[in-house]
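User: I'm putting together a teaching handout on how sequence relates to shape, and I'd like one worked example. Could you take Porin from Roseivirga misakiensis, show the sequence you're using, and then write out its predicted structure as tokens right after it?

Assistant: Happy to. First the sequence, then the structure tokens directly below it.
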Amino acid sequence: MRNFFLIFILLSGLTQVTLAQSGLRNSESDSLLAARSRAREEAQVKKGSYSAKTTRFTYEENFKFNNIVFTNPDTIPDDLHHFTDLSKGGHLIQNLGNMGTAHRSLFFEPSKNIGRTSGYNVYNQFYTSPEQIKYYDTRSPFTDVSAAFGGGGRARTNVTFALNDTVHFNIGFNFNSIRSDKQLAFLTRGDNQVKSNDYNIFGFLRPKKLPKYLLLFNLTQFNHEVDEQGGIIDPNLENNPDTTFFGYQDANVILEDAMSSDRRGGFHIYQQYDLDSIFQVYHSLDFQEQITRYYDIYDRTDSDSLIYNEVDGQTTDTIAQRNTFREFVNEFGLKGRTKKFSYTAFYRNRLLSFDEFLADTKRTETEHYIGGTLRQQITPKIFLTASGEFLFGGGYFAEGKFTSDIFDATYSRISNRPSFLVSQFNGQQRQWNNSFDNQISDNIRGEIKLDFGKFRFRPSLRFNRIANYTYFNEDRVAAQNSNDLVLLSPGFELDWQISKKWLWKNTFYYNTVSGDAANTFRIPEFISQSQLAYRNMLFGGKMMFHGGVDLHMRSSYFGLGYDPTIQQFHLQNDFENDGFAKLDIFLNFKVQTVMIFARSNHLNQSLGLFGYQGYFITPFFTGNRQTLDIGVRWSFFD
């Protein structure tokens, strides 16, 4: 607690000093947004056409922290072919080789939620949470549809619609769907491994007769079902010399009918009222529910014995686990802004419950928070931000952020309470009851922005020092190491504009793990990504073209294994993922508002150089084999 206050006071002090130097200015309230919107709408009516320039969106946090920034929809076809989880994540993630499967970052990503969570996070990537909702400001009905069809029966669909009745009211919806056939051990196409639907309704209201009031609202729903396969059976355990890890359709997998799911949803509102030009009050209310399940009927006389332990002398049994996590959150705050300074101070209350079906137990807790944010615009391109949050009873977050056009840096110190899952679990296969301490991390990220003519160079550094690192060990049981874990990842981005139409982009990370707890974290020593692309306007400027090659490489390492029964990645020391290189060729082009892509994924697999057959993304789970992927995106602005 003392450390939290010292850090927050220091960070706040830096901002306050800068504030004192600049002095308070006359305020610019959000009411000016309405005036700007009216002026833009009048100009558009005179012009008579609608496009991406007349459609824009922002996020709730921009209202909450008085940093109103709008963004127009992306209309450039570059990198449209990045539709899989691996490529969307910059090849810095780990999954089970198929789209929609369990997902984690290769890097340590500290959670800013310092209180209790459920602990079930591997499907977070596929859920659009309330803070990720985009709130649109459109001059006309806006529709954006994209569909990608990957070889091997993988499909991803995204639909967005938004409509402004006037500048005072907007409503819209998002629908995101994933359908992925099994990539291993399937008989025919249409045999889904992943079925995922994520949808939400959102909007805002700024009453004409009450212009100082703003309401944002959203409803979210998410249902994610995965047919768990448990991984490929090690060929060394089978009496068939022709069996390999790279049989794909003919692979032998451990599990046949196991199923896990993650269902979430809730409602969220945010409302604010301008008291005067400097002071505003706000309130947010949020209810979220998460239900996770795992179900299987197993027989330990076959390959199921590689996953399941014997329970009460039974060789066959049914495992049916279900956990329900609910949170009801109220936050009240005061905020305001001047021309170059903004502030937010709040109190938050969380009512939590976690219900384990097998144990027939329900744990409830109440959490109280206070916190705030100070943001100072030192010059038009230099910003300094200090944020802090304190959880009574344990837990804090403090962050300082400096941004400019030549250098960005962020430091944070975070003390996270243990999740419900790692604290206590009463599963059919494993049980634990732990009294873990808070996980405490110091985190630094920095980047220098250098441009030399045709070269764009961005050297960067990621640093984490973690005490009480919480993880799942080789026995697939929650564990904590009180020693220090130190992660250091220097890297860079280097872009070379070879000519007007040719661009070569490179990203590289060198990762080291040290400290007395170094054996609890795994990451490849080298990760790199390169793209050589040709970009041009064809047919008299009617078609925008972007095509080239992507090359991803990573070094060998003992990657984390995956246990579907608890939906967690865990340590293992028996299987080393070989280093690999994956080559893709792609074409992206755009005609008017229609964008289309085609990609030959994992092209180098067919070459078979040096006996190369494929790669592992997780121990006993191969990455996608060579496929042809296509997709389209179409935007309508009226």
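A couple of points you could highlight for students: The CA atoms of residues 321 and 364 lie 19 Å apart. Confidence is low (pLDDT under 50) at residues 4-32.
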